Amino acid sequence: MNQERIADIAARELERFEKARPRSATLRERAAASMPSGVPMAWMSGLYHHPPMFVESGGGAHFRDVDGHDYIDFNQADMSSNTGYADPAVTRAINERAAAGIQFLLPVEDAIAVSEDLARRFGLSHWQYTLSASLANSEAIRLARLATGRDGVLMFDGSYHGHIGETMVGHDGEQAKSYALGLPDDHGRDTAVVPFNDLDEVERELAKRTTACVLVEPALTNVGLVLPQDGFLAGLREACERHGALLIADETHTHMLAYGGLVNLWDLKPHIVVLGKNLSGGIPIGAYGFGRDLADLMDRHLFDHAGDEAGLATGGTLYANALSLAVAQATLSHVLTKDGYARNARLGDKLADGIQTIIDEAGLPWRAQHLTSRAGWLIGTREPVNGGEAVAMMDIDLADCRRLFMANRGVWEAIVTAGPAVSFAMTEDDIDRYLEVARDWVRVLAA
Ligand SMILES: Cc1ncc(COP(=O)(O)O)c(C=O)c1O
Which residue of 6, 94, 109, 169 has the fewest CB atoms within a 10 Å radius of its CB? Predict the structure, then answer.
């Protein structure tokens, strides 16, 4: 791809984007006096590489900015709102719970219904809740450390498990090192990072018998898509058993792809499953599930202020609040249904097939990526097998150019690390519109 041409198109589209959004520009200017980068969370600026627009409202698969532009949302806040904006059943649950109090630091009955439902979907009997998937991963790691008496965390290059100390590390060829600022130099001391799909490297690390847990996304979803090769995930579980480590499946993203996540779709048998994002229709929640043995261990190491012995470091005053759980219950029963997932997968086929057709028509050396309801643009023809290969194939300028082009035509495209994903509120027409705009973008690129 000609990078100059990409830069020219992006510059033209950026000018059009900014010109059509004067109200967002005014709000950004005002916001810069009270918030770094003019946003309440710096990522809202860092993720897009162009000035973000301010949002007014959302409904179904669409949202509207303060300048009156409507977007079909193919990113859904990095898939955390892929259950659709203002879903009627979810909105009802929010209103009813809000009218009856949202937080007591005591359990509500919805917690049982959600845990029972998740137990059926994931085959793990016991569940705990936090406010985000990052926090659920943190607690899952701590539980694994207590269970094994070891500190080590083994993870894979190209994976992302949240902004938590142990996992914000990459591999520099020799050792795990932080890729973010503000963390102590040695915070990745107990973390090892090996290539995805490489069981030999896993074996080498686990044989040291210092690893408490292997933390894995069943498919890498934060570097485009990287699928597990045949036998990789089963081999991981077997190696964990043999070396006394726990396998944690982080299904924060992949839970959107199948009923019961990839754990159910691919019949995986992790010791712990982590969820978050869409589980509660966009209301903050994180969850992790495990079997009775780990539940008993937790019971025996309760964090008890009156007790003499130290307890397991889990919990937070706002975790597992009544609102998160009421909304999770409504989301699971009304949106994340078997029918909903089946419909999404059909729309995902249409989306990925459509992208492949556009690529073929233009004769580009690219490929559509596809895993049920998620698609992607692979800038190459050979599927990457690990994070290193996937990162090397990413073209950030090209993805940013595509997002601006599409935003100007009413389609909100995914952030660079994700692909377009189907939301539970989408229709065939939404997919058709994505493909129409994508086809135009490819034509302009190739002109
Ligand atoms: C696989 C995975 N795990 C954990 C997280 C962290 O989620 P959150 O930022 O909602 O805590 C993410 C976020 O993208 C993720 O993709």
Answer: 109
